[in-house]
Amino acid sequence: MAGTVTVPGANVPSTPLLKDELDIVIPTIRNLDFLEMWRPFFQPYHLIIVQDGDPTKTIKVPEGFDYELYNRNDINRILGPKASCISFKDSACRCFGYMVSKKKYIYTIDDDCFVAKDPSGKDINALEQHIKNLLSPSTPFFFNTLYDPYREGADFVRGYPFSLREGAHTAVSHGLWLNIPDYDAPTQLVKPKERNERDLIGPAMYFGLMGDGQPIGRYDDMWAGWCVKVICDHLSLGVKTGLPYIWHSKASNPFVNLKKEYKGIFWQEDIIPFFQNVTIPKECDTVQKCYIYLSGQVKEKLGKIDPYFVKLADAMVTWIEAWDELNPTTAAAANGKAK
Predict the structure, then answer these.
(1) What distance in Å separates the CA atoms of residue 33 and residue 13, rounded to the nearest whole number?
(2) Which residue has the higher pLDDT, 130 or 260?
(3) How far is it, in rounded angstroms, from Cα 337 to Cα 97?
(4) Of 51, 256, 283, 325, which has the most beta carbons under 10 Å away?
(5) Which of the four pLDDT bands, split at 50, 70 and 90, describes residue 9?
(6) What single DSSP character describes residue 2?
(7) Which residue from 135, 126, 98 is spatially nearest to 23, judged by alpha carbons?
(8) How are strands ordered across the β-sheet holding 238-248?
(9) How does DSSP assign 57-122, residue by residue?
(10) What is the biggest distance separating any 2 CA atoms in the chain, rounded to whole angstroms?
(11) Would you put residue 89 in left (φ > 0), alpha (ψ -120 to 50) or beta?
């Protein structure tokens, strides 16, 4: 863990946006000293910490934060047999935090991600930017060359269809890393020094079965991204990728990563075309229905590649069942249309 830094005089709104409507989910195996850097931005919010690995280990959280911490024993106690859908010894365990949260919005971050600075040297409040992204529309059906026409100072370019300028609800805001890129293991090896300068979609934010006892790891965020994008496209929901930036401090060991990713590197040549070609039927008008349908397609189409995908498809169903058990209000609303 890199040394902690305290940020004096950070530019924080007097009243934090969505203070009572947002939880911050953090998966970790270590003490959360990194929160000191984020304190000016995170302290007003409630944290849900999902402890991976040894549940008997004590995780230290800096004083002054409002948080709840769950370890593997808690997950097993709360979900019972359905705990099998939550990964162990992999950051994919974070999705348990999404499930137990009762807030409308979720922000998730890893413990090796620090505050970045803008070109003027000012600290970037990534959380605030994500919130602004979610509270403004997206343009998923037609590309705007000024990135986000809803940002202050931007607008729609010449030729952008007027009928699409109302935009779509933004379901996901996906920021980017500065410093250490999110490469797969082979690319890490050949470019070791390179540096780079919920309510709508919650039930689909499942990070799959990864890590301990599974033949694959480090594909958790990609699996969630592929599933979510297909479902968002089907339900006419938007996804924003780009701003804000955060600073990624630590590069993991590429040889360890290669062992985790090895099968995924081969499998992705079939997985990506699968998501490119899958079509969700019109009658699937809620996230849950879309995800259950997708799980059936995973079992039918990808199950031919390896038995792992049959197991994953079953876990996808278990995930939805567990989600609906812990979020009965959301489940009831899903009997109508997506909200």
Answers:
(1) 24
(2) 130
(3) 24
(4) 51
(5) very low
(6) P
(7) 98
(8) 113-114, 238-248, 170-179
(9) SPPP--TT-EEEEE-HHHHHHHHGGGGGGS-BSSGGGGHHHHHH--SSEEEE--TTEE--B-TTSP
(10) 60
(11) left
